[in-house]
Design brief:
Strands 8, 9, 10, 11, 12, 13 and 14 form a seven-stranded antiparallel β-sheet that branches. By secondary structure, this protein is α+β, with helices and mostly antiparallel strands. 34% of the residues are buried.
C-alpha cells in the first residue's frame, strides 16, 4: 500500500490518499481541541492511544456484523480504512445524563437514563454543531429515511455491544459520538466511520466515577494522557 498526498486534515486526524482510490490512510494526531476548536492543546501520545483503542473497538464491532470503514492498523498512528463520503451528522448515544444534555435540560450530571437516547447534530463547526431532528435531515437531504433508520438501528446495536464491553473492564460508558459514511465504491454501503476512542466517548470508572476521557482536557482536570492510557491498559492494549 503506497501512501500518497494529504487529502484532508481535521482537528484530530489526517487522511492520506493511497494507490487504491477506494482506500485511505487515517493518521491520528496528538492535537486536542474542545468546544469546536475554541480550546486547543496537545496530549502526549493521544494519537497512539486513540489508534489502538479505536482499532480494537472497530475490530470487535466488525466481528459481530457491524459494517465499518476499518481495514487494519498499519502502525502506532495509522489505520488503513475504506474511503467514504461522510453523512454530515454526529450521532450521539447517551446512557447517562452528562455534558450538553445536563446543561440543556437542567438535569444533574450522572443521572441514569431509563433507556439509551440517540441525538443528531449537524456537523458544522461554525454553527457549533447544532442539535437537529429527523425532519431537518429529510428536508435538507443529508440522508434518506432508509439510511436514517439504518443509522439509528446500528447506533443501538453498537451501544449494546460497547456497554457490555466496557462494563467488563470496569468502565461506565456514559455517552459517545458516532459518524457514518457511504462507501465511495458501489454499492455505496453505509458504514461506521471516523473513530471510537476516549476523544469521542465519556468513560467513567464504575467504582469511583473518575473521568477517563477528553473531559479531563475540557475541564482542566489534569492527568489527561494518564486517563487515556488507563483505558488502553484495561483493554489489554498496553
Amino acid at each position: 500500500m503506497e501512501k500518497r498526498e494529504k487529502m484532508y486534515e481535521g482537528k484530530a486526524k489526517v487522511l492520506f490518499a493511497t494507490d487504491d482510490e477506494h482506500q485511505v490512510i487515517q493518521y491520528f494526531k496528538d492535537d486536542a481541541t474542545a468546544f469546536n476548536g475554541v480550546k486547543r492543546g496537545s496530549i502526549e501520545d493521544k494519537g497512539v492511544v486513540n489508534n489502538l483503542v479505536s482499532s480494537r473497538l472497530m475490530e470487535i464491532l466488525g466481528l459481530v456484523g457491524i459494517p465499518t470503514h476499518f481495514i487494519s492498523r498499519l502502525n502506532e498512528r495509522e489505520q488503513l480504512v475504506r474511503r467514504v463520503d461522510i453523512v454530515p451528522l454526529e450521532v450521539v448515544v447517551r446512557n447517562v445524563v452528562a455534558g450538553s444534555m445536563a446543561k440543556r435540560l437542567g438535569r444533574e450530571e450522572g443521572e441514569p437514563l431509563v433507556r439509551p437516547v440517540v441525538e443528531l447534530y449537524y456537523k458544522a463547526d461554525k454553527l457549533d454543531d447544532p442539535l437537529v431532528t429527523l425532519d431537518h435531515v429529510e428536508v435538507f437531504g443529508w440522508a434518506d429515511d432508509h439510511e436514517m433508520s439504518t443509522i439509528i438501528e446500528l447506533a443501538h446495536r453498537i451501544n449494546d455491544i460497547l456497554l457490555g464491553f466496557f462494563a467488563n473492564i470496569g468502565i461506565r460508558l456514559v455517552d459517545y459520538k458516532l459518524e457514518f459514511g457511504r462507501l465511495i465504491q458501489s454499492p455505496h454501503t453505509l458504514v461506521l466511520a471516523d473513530e471510537i476512542s476516549p476523544d469521542s466517548c465519556r468513560l467513567w470508572d464504575m467504582k469511583t466515577g473518575e473521568k477517563l476521557d477528553k473531559d479531563r482536557f475540557r475541564r482542566d482536570l489534569g492527568g489527561v494522557a494518564e486517563a487515556y492510557r488507563e483505558v488502553a491498559r484495561r483493554m489489554g492494549l498496553s
